[in-house]
User: Fold Inositol-1-monophosphatase from Butyricicoccus porcorum.
Amino acid sequence: MILEQIIQAVRECGEMILQADRTQAAAEIKDGQSNNLVTKYDRAVQEALRDKLLEIAPQAHFVGEEEDVHESIARGDAFVVDPIDGTTNFVKDYKCSAISVAMTHDGTQEIGVVYNPYLDEMFYAQRGKGAFCNGKPIHVSEKPLQQGLTLFGSASYYKELVDDSFRLLRLCFDRSMDIRRSGSAAIDLCTIAAGRAELYFELRLQPWDYAAGSLIVREAGGSVTRVEGGEIDLTKACSVLATGTGADPSFLRV
Ligand code: 2AM
Ligand code: CA
Ligand code: CA
Ligand code: CA
Assistant:
């Protein structure tokens, strides 16, 4: 079964994150931005994933965050991979990062796997077959936001979005019990999928941040759209809003 094979590959690569030599985790700056980091482990995990995943499905395209050129996922099978989601956390040894792998067919997610090696939590979903964490079915929360938690990503690396992010965050803060910020979009999406929080938003993410997690949320019964409404788009960066069944996010759109 391809799902089990992907899970096995991701689990093995999770071990690379846990075993990383902290003295070797020197961060380089990406795209000339001081808060945009990459380490040799981002590249090493991605290379290991590429080898393992293309052995499982040699016909598939491979799209990874640290890849220089991004192939199209529009036709056929493709893997959309974030080797370490939460690189800043990894560099800080904050112990909140994940591996995110989606498999798509003709541009639609068929399989999503997100692994948090620090908690040994393996989240996965197959389209139409429900969502699971470590073998147990998971479901989103039914609670209204007033009895819930808001998760957000600050999109701090897109300066033009910061004012809007914090304006929306304030709206959520006033309507929920409290707010949380993990630093990993993939973990945030799985936190919604597992019913541990009620609403998550971030104003700009890349496809590898949400390709797997968004399928897991939907298969857990939740909703994933853009913040402004409309479908998320796996071919480019977009905003992401994920909710359980009890949270009404319409206040974010006025
Ligand atoms: P990353 O760690 O894989 O880069 C945090 O708000 C979320 O945004 C993380 O999932 C992080 O993924 C993602 N992100 C995307 N671009 C980023 C950047 N330039 N700097 C920091 N986080 C970024
Ligand atoms: Ca990421
Ligand atoms: Ca990453
Ligand atoms: Ca990154």
